Amino acid sequence: MSKGLDPGQVREYYQQLDNHELMRIALHDAAGLTPEAQEIVNQEIEKRNLGTAAADAVRVQNKTHSLEEIDAYCALARHLNCPQCGSAAVPLNGALISSTISVLIVTIQNKKLKIACPGCLDRANGNAITTTLLLGWWGIPWGPIRTIQSLGHNNKSKTTNHEEGPNDYLRNFVMANIGAFEMYKNNKAQLQQLISVALE
Predict the structure, then answer these.
(1) Of 2, 57, 4, 27, which is closest to residue 197 (Cα–Cα)?
(2) Which end of the chain is less packed: N or C, by CB atoms within 10 Å?
(3) Averaged confidence pLDDT in the chain
(4) Measured distance CA(77)–CA(170) in Å, rounded
(5) Which of the 8 DSSP states describes residue 39?
């Protein structure tokens, strides 16, 4: 809520949202809200009995976090089952999976952030490299450029898949979803669902 914006209009906007839309804001889109707007969102959450955890999700998106705090959220993700193979034997991490496919003058580069065990991340990076090497070069002019970019993304990502602690890809995922991590920190099933969704 910027200066000069009528608090009544802001309140009316949040009141007209259904519960699903309000929770989406609380979990994922509350970063950058002014204190006044945060208070209005929290009042609406309280009025609808959506729980104090939703208000906490709004709060954590609007504070500066230390590396230790971020890594504490990362630990919640690292001890879940791998969404790919189901194993819980090795702590999970994050990887950028980038592939390029070209057909004549059309080149499509697809980048996804994946959370999985290091072995599954290695395989995903390797599969993306193979796909890119076979199908990426053929588009003119972007095929060779996007192919080189995708190969670079995957090779860089593979170097961090086996890091002992959380890597920067996992930290970035956690920061982008920190409201949801706060909301579901005591709900393993919801966290498992959260990490199963690949990000564009």
Answers:
(1) 27
(2) C
(3) 93
(4) 9
(5) H
Span 43-96, pLDDT tens digits:
999 999 988 899 999 999 999 999 999 999 999 999 999 999 999 999 999 999
User: Is residue 187 scored above 90 in pLDDT?
Assistant: yes
DSSP 3-state assignment of 110?
strand
C-alpha distances in Å from residue 72, one per residue of 43, 44, 50, 53, 155: 28, 29, 25, 17, 27
Q: At what angle do helices 52-60 and 35-47 cross, to 10 degrees?
A: 160
Cα angle, residue 84 at apex, residues 86 and 135 outer, rounded to 5°: 160
Quote the tokens at residue 129. 């490299």
Q: Which helix (H) or strand (E) element contains residue 101?
A: strand 93-103
- 3-state secondary structure at position 183: helix
Q: Residue 101 pairs with which residues in a beta bridge?
A: 108
191 vs 184: CA distance, rounded Å = 6
pLDDT value of residue 10: 86
Domain ranges of the chain: 7-60, 70-195
